[in-house]
Amino acid sequence: MNKKINVTIWNEFYHERTRESVKKIYPDGIHGALRDKLSEFGEYNLTVLTQDMEEHGLTDEVLANTDVLIWWGHAKHHEVADSVVEKVKARVLDGMGFIALHSAHASKIFKSLMGTSCRVKWRENDEKERLWVIEPSHPIVKNVPEYIEIEEEETYGERFEIPTPDELIFVSWFKGGEVFRSGCTFKRGLGKIFYFRPGHEEYPIYYRDDIIRVIKNAIDWACPDGITKPTLGHVEPLEVVKDKFEGKSMEERTHANLGK
Predict the structure, then answer these.
(1) Which residues of the chain, if any, have pLDDT below 50?
(2) Domain contains 168
(3) Domain that holds residue 89
(4) What's the mean per-residue pLDDT of the chain?
(5) What's the domain count of the chain?
(6) Other residues' Cβ atoms within 10 Å of the Cβ of residue 181
């Protein structure tokens, strides 16, 4: 792909403004940290949006010009307008890539795309996490080590109430004993979706090169490059064919169509 990928980074941007501990880690917001790290690759047109913007920043124009949407949310899922969720979902079904980070598993848009509750076990206890790569040939883990070790993170545990992933890329182990499906891909309509678990706001996860490498790879994988859009609904035949309704009245044609 020669042209730059249009990436929109969406962040709830609540904890960074209401908790000093989080503000110290992400003074420019989680979206700012992601933007700055991803900009180092020089391959993307990066736009950052926050929930407090009109339409949460996700206008029709923005969505139409987004190849891949990255979503981080946690405490304000319920305040995201249903109308915006439906617009985002429609764009994913039409081919836009979608990357859900950390607690975005509980966002309205992710739950709508999955069709399940997406609930998990969790606790905040500064536990070590190892994310094991279990599909080493997958493009999302290109140039990623066999495992990523995070000394302190929020713990998530199975059961993770999601549909069976199309591909399971990472499985996490936590020091407290839990395991978790931390990197999952899905396809919905023409769109590719990646869920990636690390990224609790209390830890500087999004400054790590290995974590950003996974997100970068996921962007490249999810980008709708070269999609052939299908034609849906009534179509004319490509070849000359006999009209089976020839000589039939409109009433007879309508009756036959209703019987489909």
Answers:
(1) 1
(2) yes
(3) 5-222
(4) 94
(5) 1
(6) 21
